[in-house]
Amino acid sequence: VSDVKDPTESRAERAERERQHPSPIRELTARELARWSWRQLTSMRTALILLLLLALAAVPGSLIPQENIDSVKTTNWQAAHTTLTPIYRKLGLFDVYGTPWFAAIYILLMISLIGCIVPRLAVYWRGLRAQPPAAPRNLTRMPGATSYTTSQSAAQVTARAQEVLRQKRYRLRRVPTDSASEGAPQAVAAERGYLREAGNLLFHFSVIVVLVGFAVGSLFGYKGGVIVLEGDKYGFSNTLTQYDDFAPGSMFKASSLNWFNLRIHDFHVDWLKSGPRQGMAKGFKSDIRYQTDPDGPTKSYQLEVNHPLDIGGTEVFLIGHGYAPVITVRDGEGNIAYSGPTIFLPENQSFLSFGVVKAPGAKPTGLGLEGLLYPSEVNLPDGTPVNVTGDIGDKTAAVLSLQAFKGDLGLTNGPQSVYTLDTSRMTQVTASGGRAFNLHVGDTVTLPDGLGSVTFDDVTRWNKLQISQTPFKHVALGGVILALIGLMGSLFIRPRRVWVRARETADGTLVEVAVLDRSGNDEVGAVVSGLVAQLQGRVEEEDS
Amino acid sequence: MSVHAWELLSNRAVATAAILYFLALLSHLVEWSALIGHRRTTAEERVLVNAGDVADIPPAPSADVTPEEETRAERIALFGRIGYLLTCLAALAHLTAVVSRGAAAHRVPWGNMYEFTLAGTCIVAVAYVLLYARLKLAWMAPAVVAFVVVVLMVGVLALYDPVEPLTEALNSYWLVIHVISAALATGAFTLGGIASGIYLLKRRRPEAASGWMSRVPALDTLDRVAYRIHAFGFVLWTFAVLITGPIWAHQAWGSYWNWDPKEVWAFITWVVYAGYLHARATAGWRGRNAAILALVGLATLWFNFIGINYFSSTSQHSYAAPAVSAPAVVSSNV
User: How many other CB atoms are there within 10 angstroms of residue B89's CB atom?
Assistant: First the structure.
């Protein structure tokens, strides 16, 4: 909130006020202490310091990996910095934006804001209804002032001044400032730019609205991710257990998940066929089928990046895609130990993908496979396989290159990522010559030592969906837009006061013009000269 | 014309613009070095008074103008004109480079860091050329030209990317709105920062009668010019960072505020400039303190644009190599 400079409260008046309310040095009572603290908190300087402190406090969160933004990177960082990690953890530096000290800064800032706004509303309300102050006695002493003499009468000059100022949408002081007796000076007092303070107050009020909207969104909302396979056989229904990852706000209740299910009927990728990014995906879209209640009709939607699907306040976003090879593992006894589409995660832009198959129940020993999917493989002359493009086309060039392991997969020792294989208690088995097992679609390889066989049946695709609820997001958006409007008002509206006084003297009428800039950032020289020109009837536009 | 022909044209135009900017910079440096020890002539004095927006003060008559001083004044004026003319030509070539880059890519030419640098510096240069006469910007000529040529060259050397289509998330009309407002705000903050920097230099010798500082407007005017440019930039920045940014982020990534490093630093920049405006308005921090705060803001702005990329690879704003979304899924059993 900006202070409008007001010279009307003089040093003398301030001294008088202080004399009536003396502040002798003695112990503060609790009430006085509270009042003193409140004054300090709501002072401009504190607000400024809190603002800069907020900027400073936001810095570590951008330099240190954050748990709720990139948990994998955070874990790796913590593993690499064993000395710093406990200290950082104690300071909450892995979740800066959720720590009490970060919250303390913005809550204090918010209180400070409210403490600024409320009293100023009253001041503004009074100022809005008050008349422009009367002309000070000595106009020419003001910084932006000038004077000239004219042959017009004082009454003519003031009438002209009133007309000019009214045209410029100034508010005029209703009663003449000086007694209108014969020969006495006549004066006009005018003021404009009342909306600047309104803009100012609107801006600061809107900041609170934005904070409330943001807080509600992050407390009551959630963000979850799920990988859904393409095809009508697969799908997703909106219950907690179906999510792969789920980040709720601290006040989120599972009951606010609304009922729906969806499936990916068809998925289409537009591949770049030429240029430096050849082989990368240019665009992709999913043909989604969804139901919003169990007996309701099935609706369809084209889900694309930048075009989310809104289902009653829950939004579904398409944020990634990849391949899922369909793999069947038969064990040494010929039984199917694993079968189905397996999600492989892309490692680069041309969708060279990595994935893992776990068949702990295979006989005689548990089996694990890990390896790469080349959507379109070409062998270099030296035999090294490279991937050309992410476009799998008719799947004839797709190659699955797997490494096989036998033994204990370690699944009984606690949670394990489905995308990694713990080979610490396993031994590798290889194809002849110690190579990996390479399969085209339709191929079956037999594992050595009677362990079983692996079949690469087909390749299908998956979509990574992000599903979230952000209550009050429109409140936050509306708040920012209001804040912008208020900000423009407070920056670009120029409040100023103008006084014109005409006094008839022996040499003609002496006209004094003074302009007071109340924003502290305006140049009054041009305004004064423009005004004088208009009073004298010259056509010269004021530059403002 | 083919994509490659447009791209080639763009690259040639960038090279041409860079050479012209460099020549313009040399010309301005000759002009300014000639100012050392040179006292202002009456005519120049009048121009300067107008530049300071103080209309009615009569120029102080300088009585002793020697013929050498007159030829020196002519030389100063000549090199100033040549510098401006070269800057105009350079800006034209620069604009050609931006437009042909867009024609090559079939989209708005600010899809990656190189293109953003190219377009951003072009905005600064064109704004300077257009406002030169109106706002009497001759005094900031070397600073602006030096800034443009240095940033443009950094862009070419360190950030260059061949023309390529956009990654999926960038393919949105918000690219036009969000990036152009961010680029305009960046241009404005940069010009404002130059004004604040010159203010701090001028402050050390406010009454300099000769040398290049004598050309610079009075301290008050500098302070006010800097404030106005910053106020304009701040409104645009608010629009870019707190309105269009979150709307687009929400559409593309499913969450309007992700505490992504670029977002955090954009927010920090916003807060520092808010502090600047606040300090000027209330704490009476005009002049030196405000100028320092403005330069801190500028530093956070440019750190966000280039520096943060070297600290964090998780940013979803890493345009050059969009991260492949790798979900971290933990389950207890298969």
Answer: 17
pLDDT at B315 over 70: no
The pair of structure tokens assigned to A391 is 């476009």
Q: Residue A146 above 60 pLDDT?
A: yes
pLDDT in tens, B247-258: 988 888 888 888
Query: In B65-112, which ranges are continuous DSSP H helix?
Result: 67-105
- Beta strands A186-192 and A171-172: pairing type? antiparallel
pLDDT over 80 at A238, yes or no: yes
Nearest-10 crossing angle of helices A154-167, A525-535: 120
Give the pLDDT of residue B313.
52
Report the amino acid identity of residue A113: L
Residues of A in contact with B245 (CB under 8 A): none
Q: Which residues contact A205 (CB under 8 A, 6 or more apart)?
A: A117, A482, A486
- In contact, B277 and A44? CB cutoff 8 Å: no
Q: What is the pLDDT of residue A385?
A: 82
The structure tokens 């409040």 sit at: A495
Apex B156 CA angle, B154 and B159, nearest 5 = 80
Nearest to B279 among A48, A305, A473 (CB): A48
Rounded to the nearest 5 percent, the helix, strand and coil shares of chain A are: 35, 30, 35
Q: Choose, out of B168, B222, B250, the residue to mutate when testing the contact with A (most A CBs < 10 Å).
A: B168
B250 touching chain A per CB within 8 A:
yes
Closest C-alpha to B326, from A416, A466, A346: A346
Residue A304: beta bridge partners?
Answer: A285, A307
Helix/strand/coil (H, E, C) string of A382-420? CCCEEECCCCCCCCCCCEEEEEEEEECCCHHHCCEECCC
Question: Taking CB atoms and an 8 Å limit, are A488 and B312 in contact across chains?
Answer: no
**Strand, coil or helix: B175:** helix
Q: Is A350 a residue whose pLDDT tops 90? A: no
Q: Which one of B329, B331, B332, B333 makes the best mutation probe of the A interface by having the most chain A beta carbons within 10 Å? A: B329
**What is the Cα–Cα distance from A273 to A281, expressed in whole angstroms?**
10
| pTM for the model | 0.82
Query: What's the confidence (pLDDT) of residue A13?
Result: 65
The dihedral over CA atoms of B145, B147, B148, B151, expressed in degrees to the nearest 10, equals: 160
Task: Place A183 in a pLDDT band, splitting at 50, 70 and 90.
Answer: low
Give residues with Cβ within 8 angstroms of B140, minimum separation 6.
B128, B191, B194, B195, B198
Does residue B242 belong to the interface with chain A, where contact is any CB pair within 8 Å? Answer: yes
Give A55's contacts in chain B (Cβ within 8 Å).
Answer: 267-268, 271-272, 275, 300
- Give the CA dihedral B48, B53, B59, B60, nearest 10 degrees: -80
The residues, any chain, with a CB within 8 Å of residue A23's CB and separated by 6 or more, are none
Q: Mind telling me how many Å the CA of A224 is from chain B's nearest CA?
A: 10
Give the pLDDT score at A319.
85
Residue listed under structure tokens 């002049």: B287
Does residue A1 register a pLDDT over 50? no
- Given a cut of 80, whether residue B134 has pLDDT beyond it is no
Residue B260 near chain A (CB below 8 Å): yes
* Identity of the residue in A277, A417, A521 whose CB atom sits nearest the CB atom of B330: A417
Closest CA to B262 of B321, B314, B193, B185: B314
pLDDT interval class at A298 (50, 70, 90): very high
Yes or no, beta carbons of B329 and A245 under 8 Å apart: yes
What's the maximum distance between 2 C-alpha atoms anywhere in chain B? Answer: 95
For B275-312, write each residue's pLDDT tens digit.
999 888 776 777 888 999 999 999 999 888 877 766 65
Contacts of A529 in chain B (CB under 8 A): 55-56
Tell me the average pLDDT across A182-209: 86
